[in-house]
């Protein structure tokens, strides 16, 4: 079976029409959900880009592969794309990878094939192209995008130079604005915007595959959009599609005073540097604009998905191709008066979209309330592709969710474990001003999400955490940490068990002769 794996960047689970969003229009992704199965309770292993992307590709929790920004995914850790390649698959990745660090690094001896400054620098760009490693984590072909919004580079620049070289100075200039704007309309035309690059390269690959350029091999195609991650910069008609005044603020928007008093979030919010990336409190005008520009980006992604799936259908490949659609983490999007992401205890950044279509297996239009973790994607794909268990990575920690794909009423797990470990991630040493504001920058957090509750514990905050009843308090306004000690103790014990189960087993005991 062929596989197309769509992944977006920083998209909430409720940012799809099929998920009940009353404003956002995503007809093509909705159609995909109508042909497959949607999972409203899919969760990350880490609510930031790099660690969760590593978990998706390896089936391992972040503490086993990439615990922090600034840490490359070790080359000796198997990825499911690498396993498929070994099993005879054609493997192609287009867009954002983020398996190598982009800026600051923990280990000074490491080098990055995705280093932002290297790609944006005119003198080193050619060297980045020439030295790009192949295969890259199991991908024979990679059309790389680094950056977000219209502040992008990578192989995308070379594609743009062939079509409209007059825009090269523009993207160089935009690259310096990666953290300066939260939202704006892009000066890049729609047909030259990074999302269009992904569409073009995906369609090109499928057409070459359809012509027989790859023989009889099945394919694995990863299409990884750098949107709707901020800066939110939709181009052309997508920037005008949604009006800020029509955007609905979430019911918890006016909970900002409680956030200011939060023992962990309060002292860390709105840092002059990190406020462009995370932990940003917001005003009504900014939030409405942020939402409307985000919606424009998602609708453009939806059109891209539609074009790729139409190409698949035109080539007669639909009935033999598994489709997965997900994201690496969510966004606060006005919840509790905040936007962006970060070390936060709320569902908006932990819960991601997940749609899965397996021809002949998934019931069209089905919805499963089963808990699913990002760590479950790798083993499930490998098993659905009928990879012999002996050929699969021996240490994979995820659970095969095939039983749920067969029956949406089935359940394979009773909780999801999530972790953040941003201790010594390189930022503090590179930027002392952050150390002054954040102390030692240690943001080490453990989460537990069950069918009903979510628990969050912060390293260094003794006797303090967050506990929400997401069934009766979906806006997460009432912290039960102090008022329900019995429940707190029960969930802490459950969290401890999950932490024990996810610890590594290295060095492994050697078998006796």
Report on this structure.
The two termini are 40 Å apart. The chain has a single domain, classed as 3-Layer(aba) Sandwich (Alkaline Phosphatase, subunit A), CATH 3.40.720.10. The strands form four sheets. It has a nine-stranded mixed sheet with strand order 6-5-4-7-1-9-12-2-13, sandwiched between helices. A four-stranded antiparallel sheet has the order 15-16-17-18, covered by helices on one side. Helix 8 (194-210) runs parallel beside helix 11. The protein has helices spanning 27-35, 49-58, 80-86, 116-120, 122-130, 155-163, 168-175, 194-210, 236-240, 256-261, 284-314, 347-350, 377-384, 402-406, 427-430, 432-438, 485-502, and strands spanning 2-9, 37-38, 42-43, 90-95, 141-148, 151-154, 219-228, 280-281, 321-327, 338-339, 351-352, 354-357, 366-367, 372-373, 415-421, 444-450, 453-458, 465-469. By secondary structure, the protein is α/β, with parallel strands linked by helices.
């Amino acid at each position: 079976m062929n596989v197309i794996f769509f992944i977006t960047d920083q998209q909430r689970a409720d940012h799809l029409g099929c998920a009940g969003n009353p404003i956002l229009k995503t007809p093509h992704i909705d159609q995909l959900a109508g042909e497959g199965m949607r999972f409203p309770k899919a969760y990350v292993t880490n609510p930031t880009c790099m660690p969760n992307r590593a978990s998706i590709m390896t089936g391992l929790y972040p503490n086993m592969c990439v615990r922090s920004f600034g840490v490359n995914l070790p080359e000796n850790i198997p990825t499911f794309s690498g396993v498929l390649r070994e099993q005879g698959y054609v493997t192609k990745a287009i867009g954002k990878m983020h398996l190598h660090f982009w800026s600051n690094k923990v280990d000074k001896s490491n080098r990055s094939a995705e280093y932002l400054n290297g790609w944006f620098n005119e003198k080193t760009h050619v060297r980045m192209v020439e030295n790009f490693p192949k295969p890259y984590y199991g991908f024979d072909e990679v059309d790389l995008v680094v950056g977000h919004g219209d502040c992008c580079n990578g192989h995308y620049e070379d594609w743009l130079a062939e079509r409209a070289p007059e825009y090269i100075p523009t993207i160089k200039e935009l690259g310096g604005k990666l953290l300066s704007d939260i939202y704006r309309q892009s000066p890049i035309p729609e047909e030259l915007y990074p999302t269009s690059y992904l569409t073009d390269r995906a369609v090109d690959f499928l057409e070459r595959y359809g012509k027989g350029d790859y023989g009889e091999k099945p394919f694995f195609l990863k299409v990884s959009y750098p949107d709707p991650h901020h800066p939110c910069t939709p181009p052309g008609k997508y920037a005008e599609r949604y009006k800020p005044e029509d955007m609905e603020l979430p019911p918890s928007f006016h909970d900002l005073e409680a956030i200011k008093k939060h023992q962990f979030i309060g002292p860390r919010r709105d840092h002059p540097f990190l406020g462009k990336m995370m932990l940003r409190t917001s005003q009504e005008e900014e939030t409405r604009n942020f939402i409307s520009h985000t919606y424009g980006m998602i609708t453009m992604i939806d059109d891209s998905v539609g074009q790729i799936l139409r190409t698949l259908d035109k080539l007669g490949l639909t009935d033999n191709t598994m489709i997965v659609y997900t994201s690496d983490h969510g966004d606060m999007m006005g919840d509790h008066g905040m936007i962006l992401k970060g070390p936060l205890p709320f569902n908006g950044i932990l819960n991601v979209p997940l749609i899965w279509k397996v021809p002949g297996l998934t019931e069209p239009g089905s919805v499963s309330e089963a808990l699913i973790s990002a760590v479950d994607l790798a083993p499930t794909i490998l098993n659905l592709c009928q990879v012999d268990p002996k050929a699969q990575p021996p240490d994979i920690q995820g659970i095969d969710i095939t039983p749920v794909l067969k029956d949406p009423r089935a359940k394979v797990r009773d909780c999801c474990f999530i972790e953040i470990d941003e201790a010594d991630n390189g930022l503090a040493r590179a930027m002392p001003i952050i150390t002054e504001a954040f102390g030692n920058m240690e943001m080490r957090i453990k989460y537990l999400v069950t069918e009903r509750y979510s628990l969050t514990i912060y390293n260094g905050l003794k006797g303090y955490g967050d506990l929400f009843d997401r069934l009766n308090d979906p806006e997460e306004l009432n912290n039960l940490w102090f008022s329900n000690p019995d429940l707190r103790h029960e969930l802490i014990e459950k969290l401890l068990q999950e932490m024990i189960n996810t610890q590594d087993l290295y060095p492994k005991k050697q078998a006796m002769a």
